[in-house]
Amino acid sequence: MIEKILLFWLAVISAAALILTLYDKLAAKKLPKHRTPEATLMWVGALGGAFAMYVTMQLVRHKTRHKKFMIGLPLLMVLHVLLAVLAVWVSVSGLLG
After folding, report:
1. Is the pTM value of this prediction over 0.85?
2. How far, CA to CA in Å, does 52 sit from each of 1, 58, 59?
3. Deepest of 3, 20, 32, 74, by most Cβ within 10 A of its Cβ?
4. For residues 48-61, b (16+ Cβ closer than 10 Å) or e, as one string?
5. How far apart, in whole angstroms, are the C-alpha atoms of residue 72 and residue 23?
């Protein structure tokens, strides 16, 4: 059951990351007063949207010169993978009950 909830969360947060990134790309050219704050983008990445956001940024060439995103998002992806491996290990080994 928890796996389905996590997969649903990843789908939702990844969709949000994609939409926010595309919106900010559009706003950068057409609506400069309505940009998405960088902190918001990073929080969405930290909450699970790092992979979708990084791929989207590469595809549309948005914020690719910002070290905060080009280093920070891959680091978040590594952290997410480590957390997933830890969760599987805990689940398989039965450490929590």
Report:
1. yes
2. 24, 10, 11
3. 20
4. bbbbbbbebbeeee
5. 20
